[in-house]
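Checklist before submission:
- one chain only
- standard amino acids only
- sequence pasted in full

Submission:
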Amino acid sequence: MGLWWKDVNVRVISFSTYHFMVEVLDDNNSDMWRAVGIYGWPEKANKYKTWELMKSLKFSSASPIVFFGDFNEIINEREKEGGVPRSERCMDGFRELIDDCSLHDLGYQGSCFTWQRGVTMETLIRERLDRFLACEDWCNLFPTREVRHFPIYCSDHAPIILTAGKETNMWAKKKLFKFELFWLSKPECEEVIRNSWSEELNQPADIKLAKCASVLEEWAATIFGDVKKRIRKNEKLLKRLQRRAMDASVLEQCKKVKLNKDELSLFATLAWAAWTSRNKRIFHHSDHDPRSIAVGFPKYVADYKRYALNVFGARLSLDVRSAAGWNPPPSGVVKVNTDAAVFDGGGVGLGAVVRDEKGGLLAISSKRLGCRWFAAMAEAAAINYGLQLARQLNYMKVWLECDAMELVGK
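Returned file contents:
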């Protein structure tokens, strides 16, 4: 859950495992309205705790209030497809909460369902678990508002976003020009800039810049292709499919679109890694061992393929062998992967990743030290750093893995 405001002062009031509440302040630091993020208790026997928490937060303040998040409950049977029918008693609790607190459902654009599980028609379940609820005073503050349900991708929940106030048409804003550093990977980029600039010698600087930006965008689209645009196109297609009545054919189309978008995202990730490495060498005079970059790419691909298998139930169509496979730890044990880097200009970097037996990410951390160590000492420090991270999170059963062969078995 996230909160974004432009030029608005926000102060945290309270938080717990199941909620956080902030107040939005005016120029005099006075409370204008409040926003509450909710994660509802998933267990049937504990759902009443969600409603009691919301009532307590609602009636503890006279300020306008909006609730949002994953309530882990639906309001009526139309908000669920597949699986066991929802108990009327559970839905009654949510409906009574809405009535008792005089809240309004802010509606949505997009697919009704914000949560999905299952990869076949026999196992598929879709529900509307996430929403925005606001009191009458909050609705009067923001008569112009819009809630958007985005496609379900890379998670079992759909991102949902509320825009309120004068800028509800923010999605239609004109795209600003952005110079991409990876354009410099092509030597002709400099020539494109020089030619465009020379053609407008007698024009004011702002006109010359606008012309140069336009020419660069056209050139980049031809040379590199608009990967972001293709990803957005796939997102729109996925959104349309998820709004349709689900059957075996539509479900299969959703899987194909997800995998296509996944391959595009993977390409963008690997290309960005290569271009970033090159630019660091050019602009920061930082030498990167090409062998480490080459070894790293198969690792990225292998991780991505395992992730796609867990999320989508299908492998990516990318035939790349992993230089170092990731094997899960035994049940009840967490796995800590560590790595270190020694920088030519001095200093070392330490990194650690903690995952469970299913490959789920539990923690990730990194830091840089001003030490001048040999590679083996840096790797040993990274191991210690990873073990400390696991201990801080109270994981006592740890399976350690690193790629420093000189330390393995010692």
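Reviewer check: The chain has three domains: 9-172, 250-325, 334-401.
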